[in-house]
Structure formats: C-alpha cells, structure tokens
Amino acid sequence: QKKNWSPPYVFFAYELVMGITYSEPMYSVVDGKNVFRGVAAVDYTLGGISEFLLENYINSSTTVAIFEEYDPNYMIATSTGSETGLKVRKDDETEPCTDFVSDLCTVVRIKVEDLGNVVPDAKPMDAIVSRAFVRQRDEGFPSDRLVTVKGVEEDDGQSSVDSALFVSQTLVFELTDAPLKWRVLIVSPATVSDDD
Fold first, then answer.
1. End-to-end CA distance of the chain
2. Is the separation of the CB atoms in 120 and 45 below 8 Å?
3. Is the N or the C terminus of the chain less surrounded, counting Cβ atoms within 10 Å?
C-alpha cells in the first residue's frame, strides 16, 4: 500500500465541483513490524480554480480552459463559468437528470472537445474553446507558435462572438509528486487587417 492521488472527479455533493483525493496508508509498529492500521484520506475540491478563472477573466476577451492532458481530455475548469460535469440519467447518459429524488442519476464529466455542444446554457466562447482544443490537438499542441481558429464554423452562418478569428496557446501544468498532468488552453481574439 502506497500513498495515492486519485484522478480528478466530480464531487456530486458539491454541485458538480471537481475534486481530487489524496490517501496514504497508516501503520503502527508492533513487535518491531509495521502493521497496517488504515488509510488517511483528504478530499480537495477544485472549485477555487473555476472561481479564480471566472473572477479574473469575466471582463476579458481572453478565455482560459484547464483540462486533463490525457485522452479523453476531461474538463477541470473554465473562465466561462460553464459546468465541467453533467447530471444525467443512469439508464441513458444522453438524457439530463431532472429529478434526483425519483430518477436514477449519475454524473458524467465533460470532454473539452464537447464543451460547446453538451453543456446546458453553453456560453458562445465554449464552442470556440472546443474548436481551439481540436486544432491544438491536431497540430500536436505546439509550444513554439499560436494556433488559429475561426470564430464560427463553416456551416454556422451566425455567431454572437464578435471576432471572426482567434489565436490559442497551450501550456502543460504538472504536479511531479502526483499523477496530475493538465493542459491550460488560452484563447484570445485576433485582429485581421485588410492587408492580411
């Protein structure tokens, strides 16, 4: 038995706030030998990350999203304030759960590429973040240059986002003593001149 960090998960009791758990075995010395006595565990909620991003980017044209480095790239937090998990019916995860008392419900995490599609009350920038992630992933998350993404998809026709072009960059965040490796995606509108 070793100390352990859980992968991030949704704290159901805390209104879909993300969290992680650290656990470590406890031993006593009996007759010169280590005897296992139990496990000490501490839950950490990650809601402060979302609150920080929302408060610091609320009046900014820049959007920040944090997601897990590894596929399926689940959301950790976003400056749009959108949820990172969904309450759904256990028998059909495509159906939202509206009554936790009488329905059998569960919580599923949201993949960053689905952020603009599956989140109820999605913000206009959620779709841009999703497309920026896909472009970044397809180009290998380059660290030496910005990646562009259109403000609207080819077949959209309309968008409430003012800029037609955005640039994005990603950075890796890793805790070396824990198996937590996240990617921070920064998306900002770009200005294109008539000469471009």
1. 60
2. no
3. C
